[in-house]
Amino acid sequence: MPSIETEDLTKRFGSLTAVDHLSFRVDPGEIFGLLGPNGAGKTTTIRMLASLIEPTEGCARVGGHDVVKESLRVREMVGILTESPSLYDRLTAEENMEFFAEAYGITDRSERSKRIRELLEFFDLWERRNDKAGGFSKGMKQKLALARALVHSPEILFLDEPTSGLDPRSAKDIRDLMEELSERENQTILLSTHRLEDAERLCSRGMIIRDGGSLIVGSPDELRRRMTGSPFLEVRLRRVDEGIIRSIRTLEQVSNLSIDDDANKMIVGLKDLEDATPLIVRRIVEAGGLILSVETLEPSLEEAYIKLVGGEAE
Amino acid sequence: MRASKVLLVFRKDWREISRNWQVMMPIIMVPLLFTVALPVIVTLVPELVNVPTSSTAFLELMLENLPAQLQSQLSGMTESQVMTYVMLLYFFAPFFLIIPVMASSVIASDSFAGEKERKTIEALLATPITDGELLLGKALVSFLPSVAVTAASFLLYSATVDLLTYRTFGKLLLPNLNWVVLIFGLTPIIALASVGLTVIISARVRGFREAQQISAVLIVPIIAMLLAQASGALIFGVPVVGGLTLVFALIDFLLFRLGVRLFRRESILSQVG
Predict the structure, then answer these.
(1) Shortest alpha-carbon distance between residue B258 and chain A (Å)
(2) Does position B124 have pLDDT exceeding 80, yes or no?
(3) pLDDT tens-digit series, residues B134-186
(4) Please, which pLDDT band fits residue A53 given cuts at 50, 70 and 90?
(5) Overall average pLDDT of the B53-76 stretch
(6) pLDDT, position B62
(7) Run of H or E including B178
(8) Does A114 reside within a domain?
(9) With contacts defined as CB-CB under 8 Å, which chain B residues touch A86?
(10) Do residues A21 and A10 lie in contact, with contact meaning Cβ atoms separated by under 8 Å?
(11) What is the CATH number of the domain that holds A264?
């Protein structure tokens, strides 16, 4: 049984369609990335899956439970890191944790204290447990919010933009902690982010969404391949002549060929980089060409992603 | 409905509110003004300075409209005793309606609209606490302290009044039946109305201040009561207090029905963004 399953999940706010017929599934233990620029519908999707708001159309099951009909059960079994840390500034770190632990049904005091201590120590906040959350830095607040989301050992974890608004150092800390956590707690994680580095580092699969609809689903490598299209080979020669060009152009593995006469460079579009590269090199040598360098060209995932989502991503 | 979850929300909110001086200051200062400063002014100032007769003219109008039973209580008193007696036991009574309204609206604004403003509401709504448990927990944290502060204010007021007037009247003026009905009958009902109205307002606004400012509208009917009493049109006797209790009980019922309908996760979150 998948941990998360949606079918034509749709949410409209008046005339605005925030999520548009989204269908996907996340298997147990998987870290699934929901990627897209701000306003793509990631937070609305998470809110529907966490039974905070109801879909206008379609359906979703989380941990086998319907998000509308069994909303209380869904809320019991998921942990959520909301877009803003949602911490009570006037309560101490420990009081924040205590409240949420009890709200999520950990009624036994010693069990609660043990779990809170374990998490605060893991996030390096134990020494600051008696300090009010309002005095914490952004990074510390995010760590505390993450600890809060985990307090009841949820089977499924929703993380909404966990590194957003953090400085690079804090963002890296949070990424490291999430990576460590995913190994330690073996939870199913749905990670919403507009930062590709988060997805590349943590996710086994992901989905890119724009304007509430799904664009591509796959592993980070698959996403890269499908977003960037065919790879290119850049071959620098002592001299490019007509014979060499003809010998390459006639190969069926070549999808595209452009020549930079000034730099004596050939840019060869290939259907399959691994199979075709040795063949290209052999053909050039057989045609009398002197090869100075051979390089594969792949647009970065970041560039391809920005192109795909319309340049809105950071 | 699970009582443990209601109490959990209550405890959490009270812990937060009791550490917020923006909320606690008016709840402490306003009752102190009404319970200590006003009786001191009314009893001591006429003794220290000569009060011009024109300033007590409105009292005459009030006295004319007093019930016969009360008029008989005043017979044999000096002018200054009548003024003190009527001011402390009747004229100031509506002020004690301001205390629960002010306290409950300040707390409820912070508890409902404040939580939206500080963006803590989403994590709270994501917990397995039902809408009813949340609403009741938050309503209780607004209601109970305001009733408690009103009752404490009444005790302090009674002590102050008795301390200041015993020498003049030779008996304890407070507590009396009129005030007991007012404090333990009418003020809790008015506090509930204030909580209900603030819940409705908080569902529509984004911030604590906005909610608090709009909730202040509840003071208007109380001021009207004060003026009505000053003009002699209304006297805060047992029949009036009892009648008002019934009217406000009906208002409470209507406000809470509407409040429950408006307290929906989806509409609350749509304002958080």
Answers:
(1) 20
(2) yes
(3) 889 999 999 999 999 999 999 999 999 999 999 888 889 889 888 998 899 88
(4) very high
(5) 69
(6) 66
(7) helix B177-181
(8) yes
(9) 119-124
(10) yes
(11) 3.30.70.100
Asked if A68 is an interface residue toward chain B (Cβ–Cβ < 8 A), one would say no
Give me the DSSP letters along chain A.
Answer: --SEEEEEEEEEETTEEEEEEEEEEE-TT-EEEEE--TTSSHHHHHHHHTTSS--SEEEEEETTEETTTTHHHHHHHEEEE-SS----TTSBHHHHHHHHHHHTT---HHHHHHHHHHHHHHTT-GGGTTSBGGGS-HHHHHHHHHHHHHTT--SEEEEESTTTT--HHHHHHHHHHHHHHHHHH--EEEEEES-HHHHHHH-SEEEEEETTEEEEEE-HHHHHHHHH-S-EEEEEES---HHHHHHHHT-TTEEEEEEETTTTEEEEEES-HHHHHHHHHHHHHHTT--EEEEEEE---HHHHHHHHTTS---
Distance CA A37, CA A34 (A): 10
pLDDT digits (tens, 9 = 90+) for A23-47: 999 998 889 999 888 888 999 999 9
A71 and A169 both lie in a single domain: yes
Same domain membership, residue A262 and residue A211: no
Q: Does A38 touch chain B (CB under 8 A)?
A: no
Per CB-CB distance under 8 Å, the chain A contacts of B15 are: 90-91, 95
Of B9-23, B70-84, B128-142, where does mean pLDDT reach its minimum?
B70-84
Neighbours of B254 (CB within 10 A): 11
Chain A to chain B Cβ contacts (< 8 Å): 65
Question: Do A213 and A243 fall within a single domain?
Answer: no
Domain for residue A313, yes or no?
no
Mean pLDDT of chain B: 85
Residue B33 CA to residue B30 CA, distance in Å, equals 5
User: Model confidence at B50, in pLDDT bands (50, 70, 90)?
Assistant: low
Q: What is the ipTM of this complex?
A: 0.82
Q: What is the side-by-side strand order in the sheet with A57-62?
A: A16-26, A4-13, A57-62, A65-66
Q: Nearest Cβ partner of A53 from B8, B119, B265?
A: B265
Inter-chain contact B123–A105, Cβ cutoff 8 Å?
A: no
For residues A69 and A106, state if they share a domain. Answer: yes
* A238 and A214 in a common domain: no
End-to-end CA distance of chain B: 29
Q: Any long-range contacts for A64-73 (C-beta under 8 Å, 24+ apart)?
A: A64/A1, A72/B128, A72/B130
Range of the domain at A135: 4-219
